[in-house]
Amino acid sequence: MFVIEDPAVLSLKFPLQVGTKWTAKSDSNITILKEVIGRETLIINGNEYDWLIVERIIPNFANTNVVTSWNRSWIAKEGLIKRVHFQITTHTDVNGSEYTDTYTDELILTDIDLK
Questions:
Q1: Dihedral (C-alpha) 54, 65, 59, 105: value to the nearest 10 degrees?
Q2: What is the model's pTM?
Q3: What pLDDT is recorded for position 61?
């Protein structure tokens, strides 16, 4: 599945270095902020990766019930290695009472072939 953003979203801002901040998207409905927040070295399946951690924060969800949403992407020279997404959503039940739920997922690259 492909998602085409119009206008385009600035996914990464080069050169990537700790402390770099940018607005990936901003319109009347949503603002997406990104920042390189750190650097790590991690071994996955015997392969060592030196990566930068890019955090995405969406501070305002106009017309939605999402309270908080962020994700972190671990990006090495080989590309995206890991991504964690977290979201808190507020709902209203049939009696008018509010409750929240949280959602999180983690994607990790397990194999890579750069041939």
A1: -10
A2: 0.70
A3: 58
